Fold:
Amino acid sequence: MELPDPAALAARLRSTLARYHGLAGSEWRLAKKAKDATVWRKPSEEFSGYLYKAQGVVEDVTNRIVDHIRPGPYRLDWDSLMTTMDIMETFEQNCCVMRYTTAGQLWNIIAPREFVDFSYTTSYEDGLLTCGVSLDYGEVRPNFVRGFNHPCGWFCVPLKDYPSHSLLTGYIQTELRGLLPQSAVDTAMSSTLANFYSDLKKALKT
Structure:
């Protein structure tokens, strides 16, 4: 597959994520409440699984948080699920294509996965949005199942009364593919998102 036009794809992604961010609270069902984050879900419009929403306050400034989430040198150091990351193509307007792999989950019921994602980081209201979507691009590595991220992203905005703290809200809808019971996927997704916040907070303190 050829790479799509980055500017058009970035604009579409931003608009999709903004729509998710505007969904009413009544559309979401609570999936998990943890110390560092709350996770909700609703049926995805993109595939037969769920769109997850995660939210929590992170005690740091917006730019530093987003630097730790977007493709770059920090992410691999702290994200316990990610095992490798390579930036395959870089474009202007803070866009790139990256390939990354994830570790097995749930005692390896979910085998290691590989993803190739288009990633885009931009300003949004008073803060930042870093978002992505998978591409059918490049050869699949042996011993990995190629997963697919439908439009997903992280909004990070400073808290009005505490600008040194930020509200981080994520929207994730990952199609793990392979023969997996949906209940295993749902358990893994809620826990993974809650752990993402605690791992991120630890990394920002170091």
